[in-house]
Amino acid sequence: EVDRLGEALDLHPVALEDTREFGQRPKLDPYGKHVLLVFYTARVTDDPGWPAEALEFHIYLSGGFVVTVSRDECTIVEELQAALAEEEVHEEEMVVYRLLDALTDAFYPVIEAVEGSVDGLEADVLRRPRREQLLRSYRLKQCVHQLHRLVAAQRDQFVAAREAIIGLEGLTSGSRPYLRDVGDHLFQVS
After folding, report:
1. How far is 11 from 183, CA to CA, in rounded Å?
2. How far apart are CA 162 and CA 18, in angstroms?
3. pLDDT of residue 90
4. Contact 17, 112 (CB under 8 A)
5. Per-residue pLDDT band at 59 (split at 50, 70, 90)
6. What percent of the chain has pLDDT over 90?
7. Is 137:121 a contact under the CB 8 Å cutoff?
8. Is residue 70 classed as helix, strand or coil in its secondary structure?
9. Extended beta strands in the chain, E state
10. What angle do CA 20, 24, 26 make, to 5 degrees?
11. Which candidate, 111, 32, 19, 106, places its Cα nearest to that of 69?
12. Could you give the C-alpha distances from 110 to 45, 51, 116, 168, 174, in angstroms and in order?
């Protein structure tokens, strides 16, 4: 499927190689008339010891298309696709903004879930300290560290990414305030 996508949209072979091998860091790589944006979101899990998981998206952008590739199901993107299908106007800069905004804003319920797990662990420790709470505490710390590392890297690279996206032929300079909003949300999340 990745090969067919690359052929249909004339995507750069190095970008396609990155998409075949997930586990990339957040980044934006320009390839002439298109860019590859590796962008992360997160979702809540049912595990109180690991309350959230990161989801990696590879987003191809040009002045004529937006393509997302992920190995995980993501209801946020599915809901956005359904909403966009109902609308008459499909200006690419608005599609890009809404996609990045939805992926970024998905971190807010994740933060609430992590805080809930921490609060629950604190209450358990205060009620009756037990050795197994150390493992739970360690796992929560790992979860938070993993998410923070991704969000901080994404936040740090987003200013340059925003400029590269806006510089694509076919996008207007009116995109700037929308993409700046995504950057502000990344800052708040981190």
Report:
1. 26
2. 20
3. 63
4. no
5. very high
6. 69
7. yes
8. strand
9. 27-31, 34-44, 52-62, 66-70
10. 130
11. 19
12. 9, 8, 10, 32, 31
Helix (H, G, I), strand (E, B) or coil at 106: coil
| Burial zone of 23 (CB within 10 Å; 0-12 exposed, 13-18 middle, 19+ buried) | exposed
**37: three-class secondary structure by DSSP:** strand
* Phi, psi at 142, each rounded to 5°: -60, -45
Pairing of strands 66-70, 52-62: antiparallel
- Give the confidence band of 37 by pLDDT, cuts at 50, 70, 90: very high
CB-facing half-sphere around the CA of 186: CA atoms within 13 A: 26
Token code pair at residue 142: 């790992």
The string of DSSP codes covering 140-175 is HHHHHHHHHHHHHHHHHHHHHHHHHHHTSTT--TTH
| Separation between Cα atoms, residue 70 and residue 78, nearest integer Å | 12
User: Virtual CA dihedral for 151, 157, 163, 169, nearest 10 degrees?
Assistant: -80
Q: What is the mean pLDDT of residues 112-141?
A: 93
- Please report where in the chains the tokens 């109902």 appear, as a residue: 86
| Residue at 183: amino acid letter | G
Contact 110, 147 (CB under 8 A): yes
Phi, psi of 47 (to 5 degrees): -95, 110
Size of the chain in residues? 190
